[in-house]
Amino acid sequence: MAEAVRVLIADDQALLRGSFRVLVDSTPGMETVGEAGDGARAVELARELRPDVVLMDLRMPVMDGIAATREICSDETMAGVRVLALTMFDMDEYVYPALQAGASGFMLKDASPSDLVAGIRVIATGEAVLAPTVTRRLIETVSRTRPTARPAPRLVGLTRREQEVLVLIANGLSNAEIAQRLVISLPTVKTHVSSLLAKLNVRDRAQLVIIAYESGLAEPGMPA
């Protein structure tokens, strides 16, 4: 039997923490391992408990969720801990900084219980999850703030095929869709994705999307 996905809940509202706990603990294959009411405590518990996923509210006292995410994701001793950022607000100012800080996904708190559970499962497997509206806002924000002629030294070591895969990832295609588009096998796609993560030194697809748009390799409205 597979081990349960261990979840740490970080939110300054006790009522919401309780609701999330009930959802997680009532879902087969998941368990809540701790709760934190502020970002600093979330970092402490993440270091102590090593959860698989941290549900991270972005607006908390003492230390906000973005700073807490950065602390967790930059600590090599917590390399297996992944952050799913949550907020009540669908606002540009939170999406980009949260993902830059290392969050593997970004969802709104008004997401359905089934969507939130699915998001936790995806994050726990090492993938990334971004709601469609969040992806659009991310792309718009990166494109708006990126210098027009910014060099992309990080892409120099990528093969042509890896760059093609990176563009398709930035366009939101799944591994299966990439395999179909490029007429290659699914294991080959997974190999290319693993190579991209290693060469670009990032955790998951969320960071790959940011790099693709920051570097200019992908552009808003570009055909996949």
TrEMBL record:
Domain Response regulatory: 6-124
Modified residues (4-aspartylphosphate): 57
Domain named HTH luxR-type: residues: 151-216
Keywords attached to this entry: DNA-binding, Phosphoprotein, Transcription, Transcription regulation
Signal peptide bounds: none
CDD domains found in the cross-reference section: LuxR_C_like, REC_NarL-like
Gene3D superfamilies: 3.40.50.2300
Keyword Translocase attributed: no
GO biological process, one term: regulation of DNA-templated transcription
Entry GO MF terms: DNA binding
Pfam annotation, one family: Response_reg
UniProt keyword Transcription regulation present: yes
Stated name of the protein: DNA-binding response regulator
Protein's organism: Kitasatospora xanthocidica
